[in-house]
Amino acid sequence: MADKKSIAMNMTRYITETVSDSEFITYVTEKILYNGQSDYQQIQVFETKAFGRILMLDQAVQFTDVDEFIYHEMLTHMPMLVHPKPERILIVGGGDGGAAREALRHPEVKNLELCEIDEKVCEISRKYFPQIATSFDDPRFKLNIGDGIARLKGLREGAVDVIIIDGTDPTPMAIGLYSADFYRTIHRALGENGVFGTLAGSPYFHPEWTKLVYRELSKIFPKVAMYTATVPTYPGFLWAFCVASKGQDPRGLDRSKRLASMEDDLKYLNCGLFNAVFALPSFIRRMIEED
């Protein structure tokens, strides 16, 4: 998910990502499980000693076996829990199925549509990350291979309860997922009390992205809150997310009963953490509030 510009690969032992001109992240690898090109991007799967399997898209780490639950739980459950009764769910991106897996833990969900532009990502995830792609076999799940922006524009007003964007960084292919026009489309597609959740980048390496997401959402939604999570394999570790609501303020809600029903399945999020993550470090709070 992070802004990785290049990767150097020793075919026998190492993969090294370039995060910036002065920072690199190197993983010791055991083998290359997959290395191919889809119609949209390069897809690679590596077996590593410390992090298990790693999925890379266009030379950027998307997740690893060891810490994927942090990203997927925090991206998904926060907006799902803000909505009082999330029955109709749309996830744009996330072809690996991780966000869908988490959303389907909520018993209120009646139907979930995953709109992924790159079918190959779904195929690779089902083969190499079956523990993440469990949602594909759920009867409430529907896979739609196509452009997410076009799909949202085609929805009737108020069609869904929760929309989650599980996309890549604002690269040329994905930049449309972070525009004010796109957020207006999302607002229209959400029903009463509708909630939207998205990644907002690394406050260290992508401060402009972090500010952009918060500010553009704040122009369109009455209630917007930023929160953070620590993902070990993402540069800077501390990453930001945003949840935007047409109804309830995300902060200060009591969701202990709903969280308790999923407690045995969650590895990161819990009742105490749900409200605590909205308490931002001062530098992030000042960053998003400054003119």
UniProtKB/TrEMBL annotation:
Active-site residues from the entry: 166 (proton acceptor)
EC number: 2.5.1.16
Name assigned to this protein: Polyamine aminopropyltransferase
Record field: catalytic activity: S-adenosyl 3-(methylsulfanyl)propylamine + putrescine = S-methyl-5'-thioadenosine + spermidine + H(+)
PROSITE patterns found in the cross-reference section: PABS_1 (PS01330), PABS_2 (PS51006)
Gene: speE
Family membership: Belongs to the spermidine/spermine synthase family.
General function of this protein: Catalyzes the irreversible transfer of a propylamine group from the amino donor S-adenosylmethioninamine (decarboxy-AdoMet) to putrescine (1,4-diaminobutane) to yield spermidine.
BP GO annotations: spermidine biosynthetic process
Binding partners and assembly: Homodimer or homotetramer.
Enzyme class: transferase
InterPro entries in the record: PABS, PABS_CS, SAM-dependent_MTases_sf, Spermi_synthase, Spermidine_synt_N, Spermidine_synt_N_sf
Domain PABS: 12-246
Species name: Eiseniibacteriota bacterium
GO molecular function, one term: spermidine synthase activity
GO cellular component terms listed in the entry, alphabetical order: cytosol
SUPFAM superfamilies in UniProt: S-adenosyl-L-methionine-dependent methyltransferases
Keyword Transferase: yes
